[in-house]
């Protein structure tokens, strides 16, 4: 079997090259935006707001993801600082991207007068679909793959198509397509989020927390298959505890990817998911106990800052003696006043 190397460059114009990696990440962001816009319409939130979130959030996520990755792999870049900016070659961390996107979103959402948790709930499915699609950028770049495996396992047990198997044939060895495992897991998470957001018991912020919990569970088990994990040297008891939690994967024929002992014995993207799951569950319980009148997911979303442009339709309709169109900010304010 030969090695099928897909050309990472779609086309070039002079010295400018357009790469599949960037196009795939862009496609993931676009689909995520469309999902958020569609759900936002149910709450009367203008599509322009979500476009602004993407416009400012995407660059913040990319920068934070790169900083996160470079910080833990500094030895690879300290002698060639220009490579720090070569994002098209891969090397970004999803948790870093989430940190950057969340920080940007908190600032932007508050400036627009919305409650962060309500907007985060709407954006949660868009985040996971972006990750689901974005992982295929790793496929093109032949990165973020797992440890060695066999043709029998990939073809006969997992029934993977040849184009994926061939692309995982690297340096004469077949590897686990961990990008695919995570993409499929993300699809499952997306379906569960769609189901959960129609549940009557769901409170504000809980869909966002559910996204973190569900994604982190899958990431914990998939991460151990990889050979390029960011890691650190930690206590032996912690490494043993993490390995014990992961051990059920061996029942399905999986083995952990090799990790240089001198590099570290604890994978950061295994420890972090554990902390995220615990933290998210605790946060949901505490919010239900401590936050008075915690709104439900389906409750109206109202901005505390109504711009002059937003208020014009309401003013004009009042002067003409007509009722504002459903879904406007005035409509939501009227509904809130009636409930009070």
Description:
The chain has 340 residues and is mostly helical. The protein has helices spanning 20-41, 47-72, 94-111, 116-141, 151-157, 162-167, 178-196, 206-223, 236-246, 268-290, 308-320, 329-339, and strands spanning 9-13, 16-19, 169-170, 173-174, 231-232, 266-267. The strands form three sheets. Strands 1-2 form a two-stranded antiparallel ribbon. Strands 3-4 form a two-stranded antiparallel ribbon. Strands 5-6 form a two-stranded antiparallel sheet. Helix 4 packs parallel to helix 8 and helix 7 (178-196) runs antiparallel to helix 8 (206-223). Residues 308-340 have low confidence and may be disordered.
How would you summarize what this structure contains?
This protein is mainly alpha-helical. The chain is built from twelve helices and six strands. The protein is globular and about 60 Å long.
Q: Secondary-structure blueprint of this entry?
A:
Layout: E1 9-13, E2 16-19, H1 20-41, H2 47-72, H3 94-111, H4 116-141, H5 151-157, H6 162-167, E3 169-170, E4 173-174, H7 178-196, H8 206-223, E5 231-232, H9 236-246, E6 266-267, H10 268-290, H11 308-320, H12 329-339
Helix pairs in contact: 1-2, 1-4, 2-3, 3-4, 4-7, 4-8, 7-8, 8-10
């Amino acid at each position: 079997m030969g090695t099928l190397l897909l050309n990472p460059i779609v086309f070039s114009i002079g010295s400018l090259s357009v790469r599949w990696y960037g196009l795939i990440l862009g496609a993931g962001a676009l689909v995520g935006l469309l999902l958020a816009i569609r759900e936002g319409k149910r709450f009367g939130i203008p599509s322009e707001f979500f476009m602004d979130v993407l416009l400012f959030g995407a660059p913040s996520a990319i920068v934070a993801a790169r900083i996160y990755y470079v910080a833990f792999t500094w030895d690879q870049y300290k002698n060639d600082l220009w490579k720090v900016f070569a994002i098209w070659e891969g090397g970004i961390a999803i948790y870093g991207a989430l940190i950057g996107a969340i920080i940007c979103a908190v600032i932007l959402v508050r400036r627009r007068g919305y409650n962060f948790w309500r907007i985060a709930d709407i954006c949660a499915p868009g985040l996971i679909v972006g990750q689901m699609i974005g992982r295929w950028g790793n496929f093109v770049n032949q990165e973020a793959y797992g440890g060695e495996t066999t043709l029998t396992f990939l073809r006969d047990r997992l029934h993977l198509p040849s184009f994926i198997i061939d692309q995982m044939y690297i340096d004469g060895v077949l590897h686990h397509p961990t990008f695919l495992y995570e993409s499929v897991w993300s699809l499952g998470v997306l379906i569960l989020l769609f189901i959960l957001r129609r549940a009557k018991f769901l409170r504000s912020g809980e869909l966002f927390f559910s996204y973190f919990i569900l994604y982190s569970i899958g990431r914990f088990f998939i991460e151990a298959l990889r050979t390029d994990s960011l890691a650190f040297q930690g206590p032996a008891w912690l490494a043993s505890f993490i390995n014990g939690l992961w051990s059920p994967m061996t029942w399905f024929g999986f083995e952990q990817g090799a990790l240089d002992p001198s590099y570290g014995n604890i994978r950061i993207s295994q420890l972090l998911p554990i902390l995220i799951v615990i933290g998210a569950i605790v946060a949901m319980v505490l919010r239900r106990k401590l936050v008075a009148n915690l709104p439900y997911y389906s409750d109206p979303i109202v901005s505390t800052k109504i711009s002059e442009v937003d208020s014009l339709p309401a003013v004009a309709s009042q002067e003409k003696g007509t009722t504002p169109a459903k879904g406007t900010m005035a409509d939501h304010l009227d509904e809130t006043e009636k409930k009070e």
